[in-house]
Design a protein that fits this description.
The complex is a heterotetramer, with 2 copies of chain A (325 residues) and 2 copies of chain B (333 residues). With 325 residues, chain A is α/β, with parallel strands linked by helices. Chain A has helices at 9-34, 49-56, 72-78, 82-89, 123-136, 155-167, 186-189, 195-201, 214-230, 258-265, 269-279, 285-307; strands at residues 64-67, 107-108, 113-116, 143-148, 171-177, 180-181, 184-185, 205-210, 235-240. Chain A has one domain: Thiamin diphosphate (ThDP)-binding fold, Pyr/PP domains (Rossmann fold, 3-Layer(aba) Sandwich), CATH 3.40.50.970. In chain A, α1 (9-34) packs across α3, α1 (9-34) runs antiparallel to α11 (269-279) and α2 (49-56) crosses α9 (214-230). Chain B has helices at residues 15-29, 53-57, 69-81, 100-107, 110-113, 143-147, 160-171, 221-234, 252-262, 277-289, 311-317, 321-332, and strands spanning 12-14, 33-37, 62-64, 85-92, 123-128, 153-156, 177-182, 189-191, 205-208, 213-217, 239-243, 246-248, 265-272, 298-302. In chain B, β10 (213-217), α8 and β11 form a beta-alpha-beta unit. In chain B, 69% of the residues are buried. The chains are: A alpha/beta (325), B alpha/beta (333). Chains A and B meet through β7 of A and α3 and α11 of B. The complex binds thiamine diphosphate (2 copies) and magnesium ion (MG) (2 copies).
């Protein structure tokens, strides 16, 4: 269990801020999508905020992060400005990838954020390779790689875990088990539903954590730091969670009941944390309200800035294919 | 199928719905047939093509698979080897690279390698193409990668008719067939001629007759070339539009027949130019109709770039009607 | 433990005959290779005979077998005539694949032998698919799929096991763990060396067996029959074994010691079985000698027939690419 | 490197050994460089190219990997993104299909998709080609599959010189480079000009000058075309042999320059004809030198069949000197 006394008010505020920023950012993304300002596929992170916030608070600036197409939360928690991400989704030249990537492909080398990969599980071996480079150079940073429960069915998952263990590289695999891969519930993706057991079968220490409970995630990260950063070994953290919204904006949600969604929303990670933190006096209602206001302003500003951006010139279409261009 | 009675306007149908009708037909016709792929059932299909089929046919005929492209394509190959008629859906062509080993080293290879003993009657459908702002890992026109592979039949669905009738024809093949369906055409609508009833998956098809120049194309190029031909007609240029449809084996005869009449050709495709289908078409015309050409064959093809997300760059990355017209004017001059 | 009293003299003779036929066939293959009659890659099965013999004796004629490029033993134990296999390796038109496949690609639909696949692990999903067809048609036969320890590191292995378990199809996976994948020892292929644990992580009952002990294999197959044929579930059998020869004819064997090979040869499955069977009176020395003679004749005949075969006409190069040709 | 002293015969070196020298050079030159792949270390390399390197450089620089093509190619990409200079060996081109997703969707794509932020300086070497009776799952000439991919540089090693010098040049690239090495050339020997020291991996190279016809080729086609040219010379036909070397991006200028001189061209490749490199070369000549051609460009290419095991069929599946000569006679007549 987490040592709850270690948290101070400032930290609690910061964490709530993180989570709320993600939640409101995703709300705004959905709205901008329905207005046609964001196009293509859009996958929102709402409901899973405790994982991004809890994992990221333990990482250092020089650690490397990789994620999937459902990466807004990770990108925000990592510190990429909301306006830069929103601009990217608007397809603007001041987006982090000059608008070329869009929602699914956020990259920001300045914060060591390496995607935003939309081929499910294909960033896992890249994460292993980046960790291998770290090990070869004897650096002390680590790699943290986020992916979903569905991704764990890809063969690439198995290969990556095995390589990480064989080479003993400092990579933390964070499986965000939100119970579904698109419309495919866990039991249809995996005959053995305990994903941690797969990690162990490849020689990797693997633990479960309640991904709706920020404190549990923070606690798990202490142990993960000991394993990955200190002992320089790979580890798998399976976070049980739920996405509150549809898989993407093209999803009619035929595969799950409204009731199930309601049940999970009762465990909204933001509510759970806020209740706890106010309950034990770390946060006041005023403080919470103030964070809400700050976040609202941040998001409004992000949307405004994104919509005022410029498009990349068409003449630059063929730039950045090779280094020399 | 509905008969036109001459009085009533025939109902329009979407490309998506035509694909679905085709699936229903083959699932009813042959109980060895089944559909499998990611989210084809409970979700209703990533692009809603198979929506409703799970209810209609049940989970043995409409099988949701985990994210395991190599695994379930390979399983489809095995099922085909064992006498079933699997239809395997790969959500988009980008993910097909994960199954490339199975498609090429097994499906396309086993019959020859086993001395004719082992056939693989599998149909692999995949969402293909550019134009929905899905960016570089969800939109590409990689028809050329499949069209190069010996042992495959590769079909490109450029029209409603083909959306409705190519699959049933493919199901009659005893060999692997790859069907490329274009996500940007899914919502396009039109009237389906109820009298057609079937299509021939060995031949290209003239979609518009013309005498001055042949536009040779496939897939999303078909509507673009037809639009270009209309515009060209206004300025007195009569363009023929030849839809290749079958990218492997290529219907060389139809290509040459048309070019021998028009003496001029432009090949149009969304795929990257270098080593595209257009290169092959041009090379064949070179080999067999060089002396009949009034002017060199030109290509209008995709810009060689991972497809970017924003609309203006995405549009700039693939041929547009203007560019086709320009190329035609060049070969006419 | 196997009920050793159930075996009669005829069975014992048959099993020894199987194993010896494989051993001598492989010796002859090596010899023909050095004479240039066999070309390309040649992978021999010597040392692993107890697995092919022990597994195959439990299979029915309508069961389906798939294997890798190291499949001579399986093909012979399945009942493909030595002369037909030898002819295939000589590239002759009376080989089982009309000479088109060669050593690595033996197919024989008449005996339900479906390869002979040389992309490591790529036959595993095909095996699952064939078993799926069986299940869909409610037939009572099973699929048996042989592969190596190296193959278990491919992502396709993980995907296939998961699919087999999810779909509950009658497929028996037989992993022939001969300790090496080419020159890569088990511990360099797998961080977790217990391959059965990987099977379990995908929801598949998995057991180990001593692959040098024919009786142990036979015993394991009784249980496998109960699981796969009767209960209609997939299963993984991990057979520990050793290849007595090089990986292929291009192998200088730099990666293992002569001593290690000698150690394992002490447990030669043919010797072990012969000693046991003669010891308990199932076989006499005469019987053994007679089998040796029969086998020698079989192999000589196979080589003779193969060398007298005809080549496929060059004009037929493009036949069999499509069904209609 | 040894200087010729004019008196002593220069020692011959094999293509395999030249490849090994190149590996040694780059491993010594750059400590960010390391080699990884299946059996590159303890086994000595499936084709003995890396034999001895494990002893020389140790297991951190020469890394044996498990059978996990997608995994270790992806790991190579990651290591490159993080500042290393990995050389990844894929044993044969057939197995590269298992890593196709990583090579195409990641290595070739990331720089553009990230708006120029993320480079992937990886070198992927693979054994390629036909001619050792390795049958359909271990021998193919699939250069066209890679040559089609935007974002890759694709090199084909057709000569000793390139075996020795292409890798060091590739290591200087900040983008992914695929190097195709031909297993059937490994044992070929010759004298390496010690004065060369480097090659340019942006240009094609004339291997034999001639004025009557251009033989355009790459890889195993190079020795075949040189042999054909010798034979043609006997009957008074002076053939130029242009080794493309770089299959992507194609050196169009060198192709056109030669054809504008000779007015005739034959493209020769072991790869399957349809959508091969030859198609692209022919199409470019069509587009840019149509009026300069005395006769249509012809292709001599691989028969479109999964490569069969027996020698006589394998030989029949790929171009031979006779067939090249025949095609040249056709374009000369
Ligand atoms: C290789 C591949 N196959 C299929 C898809 C289509 N697809 C996108 S997301 C997704 C589900 C992934 O589920 P999971 O890993 O659980 O992540 P989640 O979306 O739940 O966060 C699928 C099937 C893809 N992008 N890549
Ligand atoms: C996908 C793939 N990668 C690499 C190879 C080259 N290769 C052939 S056999 C082999 C080792 C396989 O080892 P294992 O599965 O243990 O089988 P064994 O040869 O020991 O029977 C390798 C690396 C291949 N054929 N296919
Ligand atoms: Mg999920
Ligand atoms: Mg082995």
């Amino acid at each position: 269990m987490v040592d709850r006394f270690i948290m101070d008010a400032a930290t609690a505020k910061g964490l709530l801020h993180q989570m709320l920023r993600i939640r409101r950012f995703e709300d705004a993304s959905a709205e901008q999508y329905s207005r046609g300002n964001i196009r293509g596929f859009l996958h929102l992170y709402s409901g899973e905020e405790a994982i991004a916030a809890g994992v990221m608070q333990a990482l250092r600036h020089d650690d490397i992060i990789l994620s999937s197409y459902r990466e807004h939360g990770h990108a925000l928690a990592r510190g990429i400005a909301p306006s830069v991400i929103m601009a990217e989704m608007f397809g603007m030249a001041d987006g982090c990838c000059r608008g070329r990537g869009g929602s699914m492909h956020l990259f920001d080398v300045a914060t060591n954020f390496y995607g935003g990969t939309a081929i499910v599980a294909s960033h896992l071996p890249m994460a292993v390779g980046m960790a291998l480079a770290i090990r070869k150079r004897d650096e002390h940073r680590i790699v943290c790689c986020f992916f979903g429960d569905g991704a764990a069915a890809e063969g690439t998952f198995a290969e990556s875990l095995n390589l990480a263990a064989l080479w003993s590289v400092p990579v933390l695999f964070v499986c965000e088990n939100n119970q579904y891969a698109m419309g495919t519930a866990l039991q249809y993706s995996h005959a053995e539903k305990d994903i941690a057991q797969k990690g162990r079968a490849y020689g990797i220490e693997s633990v479960h954590v309640d991904g709706m409970d920020l404190l549990a995630v923070i606690d798990a990260m202490r142990h993960a730091e000991a394993v990955v950063r200190t002992a320089r070994k790979p580890m798998l953290l399976v976070c049980n969670t739920y996405r509150f919204r549809a898989h993407s904006m093209f999803d009619a949600e035929l595969y799950r009941s409204k009731d199930e969604v309601v049940q999970w929303k009762r465990r909204d990670p933001i509510d759970v944390f806020t209740t706890w933190a106010t309950g034990c006096g770390l946060l006041t209602e005023d403080a919470v309200a103030q964070i809400e206001t700050t976040v609202a302003n941040e998001i409004t500003e992000a949307v405004t800035m994104a919509s005022q951006g410029d498009l990349e010139p068409v003449e630059d279409l063929e730039r950045h294919i090779y280094a020399t261009e | 199928m509905q008969q036109s009675n001459g009085m009533q306007q025939e109902p329009t149908i979407s490309y998506r719905k035509a694909l679905r009708q085709a699936l229903r037909e083959v699932l009813y016709a042959d109980d060895r047939a089944f559909l499998m792929g990611e989210d084809v059932g409970r979700y209703g299909g990533a692009f809603a093509v198979s929506k409703g089929l799970l209810d209609e046919f049940g989970p043995e005929r409409i099988m949701d698979t985990p994210l395991s492209e190599s695994g379930f394509v390979g399983a489809g190959i095995g099922a085909a080897m064992a006498g079933m008629r699997p239809i395997v859906e790969i959500m988009t062509i980008n993910f097909s690279l994960l199954a490339m080993d199975q498609i090429v080293n097994n499906a396309a290879t086993l019959r020859h390698m086993s001395g004719g003993q082992v056939g693989v009657p599998i149909v692999i459908r995949m969402g293909c193409g550019i134009g929905r702002q899905l960016a570089a890992q969800h939109s590409h026109s990689w028809e050329p990668l499949f069209a190069h592979i010996a042992g495959l039949t590769v079909l490109s669905v450029g029209t409603l008719e083909d959306a409705r009738w190519m699959l049933p024809a493919a199901m009659r093949s005893d060999d692997p067939v790859v069907i490329l369906e274009y996500t940007s055409l899914l919502n396009s609508e039109g009237i389906l001629d109820g009298n057609v009833g079937s299509v021939d998956i060995r031949t290209a098809c003239v979609r518009r007759h013309g005498s001055d120049v042949t536009l040779i194309t496939y897939g999303t190029g078909v509507p673009k070339c037809l639009a270009a031909a209309e515009r060209l007609a206004e300025s007195g240029i009569d363009a023929e539009v030849l839809d290749l449809r079958v990218l492997r084996p290529l219907d060389e005869q139809s290509i040459l027949a048309s070019v021998l009449r028009t003496h001029r050709a432009v090949v149009v495709e969304d795929a990257w130019r270098t080593l595209g289908v257009g290169a092959e078409v041009s090379a064949r015309i070179m080999e067999h109709a060089f002396r009949d050409l009034a002017s060199p064959v030109l290509r209008v093809a995709g810009v060689e770039v991972p497809i970017p997300y924003p609309k203006h760059l995405e549009d700039a990355a693939v041929p547009q009607v203007e560019g086709i017209i320009e190329a035609v004017r060049k070969v006419m001059s």
